[in-house]
Amino acid sequence: MPPVYADQRAAWVGQDLGQPGDLLRVEAAACRGRPVYFFLGPADEPDRYGRLPDQLPGGPQTLISVIISSIFTAGSVLAWRNWRRGRANLAGAFRLAAYAAILMQLAWVVLATHAPSFYDEVSIFSGQFGEAVWASVQLWIWYLALEPYVRRRWPWLMVGWNRLLAGRWRDPLVGRDLLLGGLLGVATTLLFQAQTLLPNWMGLAPPTPLSIREDLLGQSLGLLAIGQLDALYDAQGQFFVLFALVVLLRRPALAVAVTFTLQVLILLLVGMGTVVAQAVGYLPLAVPIAMMSAALIFLVLLRFGFLAHLTGLLFAVLLSISPLTTDLSAWYAASGLVCALTLAGLAGYGLIASLGGRRLLGEEFFGDM
Asked: So where are the chain's domains?
């Protein structure tokens, strides 16, 4: 039985084109003529519905737990140190943490399966509210730990971001960063889509394309909330790793090189979307694309700052997880269209704000022509 309500079910078993000789099973479920669930995996895999996705063995799980705990502890020490010395931007950190908590609660309201019982609903809300507070506290600590150091060493990275947090929405620098970040997100997304389309030219079977969020199909507000949260936490994490390496290695150029290498490896793992045996054949295509994507990311981050970097991640995340389609009659088309219009509106706002009150085609544009 599928994990969601359905009035129709179907299943197919066939040869896996990527792994000749292996059987592949596809299971589907629909409700009132609309697809609500898909499963794709080995035909002999037991307990297809009850397993936890992407579970890691005990050793890697322990290592990841130690790394995350160490980063959180180091961030807490730095945050306390900056707070005591009066260097922390408390107002900006609070606004950032509060915004993240509100987004998490909004995603819960839209996406959760709510209970008809008041007491059950309060219990579910309490658990989710605790997760939202904990996640926003982590973001608050990271910001207090990082922002003062970055502001002293590389101040230009935080100018646009701090102006945005201060409420200067129409600042031309904020508009410029939004516009450039949008271009970055579109460029990196096109590069990854090319990685899916180009293998045919190399005589290879196409790899698994980037996955949309099946659990968010038809949920416009949920897509926007989850996309913003993913971009925000990814950007903060990358920023923390970069400047932690700057502190440890004492050489900014070396820290950037190490972080760039890590970013390339992460993009390779995310972009291939295949098992290791298949991925080897895609390396001649995947490595240059990952390196170009990482180069674009670091060029925008180090030249234009954190706000442009975050906006680029937001565009890339939403373009990747949204069900974009030209078939407007599809049942999921509305959510993809809302995300596309939101990103277009954000880019248009960035263009208008970057002009600083000047007209796009005014006298300044034509100059002495």
From this structure: 8-42, 66-153, 171-358
